[in-house]
Design brief:
The chain is mostly helical and about 160 residues long. It has a domain at about 10-120. Helices cover about 65% and strands about 0% of the residues. Helix 2 packs antiparallel against helix 3, helix 2 packs parallel to helix 4 and helix 3 (about 70-85) crosses helix 5 (about 100-120). The chain starts with a helix and ends in a 40-residue tail after the last helix.
Amino acid sequence: MPLLLLVIFIGIPVLEIAVFIEAGSLIGLWPTIAIVVVTAFVGTSLLRIQGYGVINRIRAQTEQGQVPVFELFEGLCLFAAGLLLLTPGFVTDTVGFLLFLPPLRRLFARLIAARIAMFGFQTVRPGPPPGAGPASAGGNGPVIDGEFTTVDRDTPPST
C-alpha cells in the first residue's frame, strides 16, 4: 500500500510533467494548454450527459424495489472520470476518457465482483464501542438509565 501511494503522489505527476514537456516540444505551448482546457470542458459535458443517464437508471431501479448496485458503481466511475479530466494532464485525461466508455466500466465491475467473490469481504459485527459499560462485558444488552412515573388509568392526567 505505501508503494501504491508513492506511485500515485509522485509517479503520476512526474509522468504528467514528462508528457507535458514532450507535447509542448511537439506542438508548442499554447496548443498544449488549449488541449488541456478543452478536455476539461468536454469531460464536464460528458459527465453531465452520462451522469443524468445513470441517475435516471438508479431512480428507476429503486422505484422497482431493486438495489442499483451496478448503477452506483457506474456513478462512482463517472465521478472518478470527472475528477481525472479536471486534473490537468494528458495521462489523467486519457484514463478519465476511458472511464466514460460503458464497456470498460462493465469490465471493471466484473473484475471487482470476481475479486470480491474470490477473496470475499470481511464483515464487522455491530456492537457497542469499547468501554460502553456492562453490555461490552458480555451483558444481556444495553443498559438504559431513565426515570418513570406510574400512571393510574382512573385518574385524569394533570396538565
